[in-house]
Design brief:
This is Methanogenesis marker 6 protein. InterPro entries: Methan_mark_6. This protein has one domain. It contains five helices and four strands, in the order βαββαβααα. It has helices spanning 16-25, 45-59, 79-82, 90-108, 126-134, and strands at residues 2-8, 31-34, 38-43, 63-68. It has a four-stranded antiparallel sheet. A hairpin with a 3-residue loop joins strand 2 and strand 3. Helix 4 (90-108) crosses helix 5 (126-134). The longest helix is centred in the last third of the chain and has 19 residues, at 90-108.
């Protein structure tokens, strides 16, 4: 079982419901939860990997994903059972979220290439660093 976070860049016109509708249309068995930043999806490893690939292909640089270490509703992360307040890791996510419009813009301009997993070449981050320094 794997849980994945899908974070929508705030400069995007996408909504969590649009992403949920697309994932549901794929006909996969998943547990999906919408959040303030996008959605979380949970399911078998191969299903999550397949859905992640399809979401990337469909929405491109408007949506970002990362693994989540805890399942949806896990009491160690759930504010309801912890007595309120921000969950552990929330403030880091907020800082990452601030960078997404910059990263999304660079990806849309086609100036940045991702890692080719077959060649194991590192990503050239100089272009991204220049974009961040501009802001």
């Amino acid at each position: 079982m794997k849980t994945r976070m899908f974070v929508i860049a705030d400069t995007s016109s996408l909504t969590p419901q649009t992403v949920i509708n697309y994932i549901v249309s794929l006909g996969k068995t998943l547990n999906i939860k919408d959040t303030c930043y996008g959605i979380m999806a949970e399911g078998d490893d191969d299903v999550i990997e397949n859905v992640t690939q399809k979401v990337r292909e469909k929405f491109g640089p408007d949506i970002f994903s990362k693994h989540r270490a805890y399942p949806i509703g896990d009491e160690r992360r759930c504010r309801a059972t912890r007595g309120g307040g921000a969950r552990p890791g929330y403030y880091f996510l907020v800082e990452e979220y601030k960078l997404l419009p910059i990263i999304s813009n660079v990806l849309k301009e086609g100036k940045f290439r991702t890692i080719d997993k077959k060649k194991n070449k590192p990503v050239d981050v100089e272009i991204l660093k220049k974009a961040i320094k501009k802001v």
